[in-house]
Amino acid sequence: MTEFKEISPLELQENAFKLIGKDWMLISAQNQGHVNAMTASWGGVGVMWAKNVAFVVIRPQRYTKEFVDGSEKFSISFFKEEYKKMLNYFGTVSGRDEDKISTANLAMMFDSGVPYYKESKLTLFCKKLYSQQLDEKSFLDRKLIDVWYPKSDYHTLYVAEIEKVLVKAESLN
Ligand SMILES: Cc1cc2nc3c(=O)[nH]c(=O)nc-3n(C[C@H](O)[C@H](O)[C@H](O)COP(=O)(O)O)c2cc1C
Questions:
Q1: Is the pTM of this model over 0.90?
Q2: Which of 3, 66, 75, 164 is surrounded by the fewest CB atoms within 10 Å?
Q3: Looking at the predicted structure, is the pLDDT value of residue 85 above 50?
Q4: Domain membership of residue 151 as a residue range
Q5: Interval 15-41: pLDDT, tens
Q6: CA-CA distance, 13 to 11, in Å (whole number)?
């Protein structure tokens, strides 16, 4: 698809704090021929084990977790501001109840079996390297537990190698 151009993670121009924390991202994975996606605004990008990595955190009750756990790879997609309402939908409705991708009318595409979207402006294709559920005993700031885990539903942290970055050609202008 000529609409997208592959760039190196080093060529990324966007501010990761804004991109993830403010604009939000869609985490998508395919498992046994089915795809599910959810919105996330916690996570990051950086360097680990001499690799360019992304990390995301997913609570145990998310349907998407089953897909990320069942697959070697997942994608992280970013969209223009006009898709914010759609990201809110993906972040408030579960794929257990609705086929969110069909309802949102997203044009899903695949790169080596990993889902992404024609509408996205940027997608990071990630291969899982490490996953571990956050451990109550390891929190040094105990206040975080009261604020974020009153139900003890500790996130699982996934660190994944960024294997490929696709950016929409028009976003480069
Ligand atoms: C802005 C926003 C950010 C979110 N960030 C996360 C996150 O980082 N991790 C997480 O587990 N859930 C996060 N959620 C909640 C999930 O997106 C939400 O529970 C979603 O409905 C799960 O869908 P699923 O059951 O189809 O996986 C976020 C929701 C919103 C609206």
A1: yes
A2: 3
A3: yes
A4: 4-169
A5: 999 999 999 999 999 999 999 999 999
A6: 6
The pick from 23, 62, 149 for probing ligand 1's pocket by mutation, whose C-beta has the most ligand atoms within 8 angstroms, reads: 62
Backbone angles phi, psi at 149, to 5 degrees: -130, 45
Write the CATH number for 68.
Answer: 2.30.110.10
Backbone angles phi, psi at 22, to 5 degrees: -105, -45
Q: How many residues does the chain have?
A: 173
Distance 62 CA to ligand 1 centre (A): 7
Categorize the per-residue pLDDT at 170 as very low, low, confident or very high, splitting at 50, 70 and 90. Answer: confident
Q: How many domains does the chain have?
A: 1
d(C-alpha 96, C-alpha 63), whole Å? 6
Q: Do 108 and 60 form a contact (C-beta atoms < 8 A)?
A: no
C-alpha 93 to ligand 1 mean position (Å): 9
